[in-house]
Amino acid sequence: MKFQVLGPLTVRGENGPVALSGVKQRAALGQLLLHANEVVATSTLLRALWGGDPPPTARKMLQNAVSALRGVLAADGTGGGPVLLTHAPGYLLRVDGDDLDLTAYRTLADRGRAALTAGAWPSAARTLRAALDLWRGPVLVDLAESGADWPELRTLSRARSATREDLYEAELACGRHFDILGDLETHAQQEPARERICAQLMLALYRCGRQAEALGAYGRTRTALASRLGLEPGRALHAVERAVLDHDPVLGQPDALAIIALDGETRR
């Protein structure tokens, strides 16, 4: 049985998609999958399913949802598959890492980040792209649209953004600034206050011969930081602006942004 949470919640058995009945059953499974192979306290599940005001029958309704989920898991009949255990102070869903897209994503993202740190940029780019290809939309988007407002959803959204930025860094180091420029522009527009993606967009634009637009990107992020957070750009982003203004040769280096950031730190 395969589980997907990086997008709408999906369960697939040997014979295709597995139907889940009711929002509470889906929400309970979603919460357990976000913490696969960990004990999730009953109190945590109650908050996830009903917020801060669960009805008097909430525990019984949760027990019914868990019982139904056990029936779904057992119906696959493949043997050695996922198991939903009662484990004080709540429940534990035991899932093989190969059967959950979230686990696969984290493994690939960590591997890609390690390759990036080691300067193995082509390998990092391939691995990070494979990690991002597992996403089919915002995490558990169907549950979010039904009212789920869990901190895990925001945490994973931030993790996806960081992985995307790791990928852009690897692609820039490989000299693929033309290839990723459109994606960089889109994501910088979506998240104008993210300084790292602004620096990456500035570098890509500069390498494409568009210095003025690179400086314009800096200006937009500076405005977004000031209006949203009351902040000025950090030392690293300001150093990129200075390098673009000066046509600094370092901008042609594969790991230009890392060099600029390190140089900025040594001058502190």
Automatic annotation (TrEMBL):
SMART domains to which the protein is assigned, alphabetical: BTAD, Trans_reg_C
Keyword Secreted part of the UniProt annotation: no
GO biological process per UniProt: phosphorelay signal transduction system; regulation of DNA-templated transcription
OmpR/PhoB-type domain ranges (all copies): 1-95
DNA-binding span(s): 1-95
Alphabetized PROSITE patterns for the sequence: OMPR_PHOB
Family designation: Belongs to the AfsR/DnrI/RedD regulatory family.
Protein name in the entry: AfsR/SARP family transcriptional regulator
Originating organism: Streptomyces spongiae
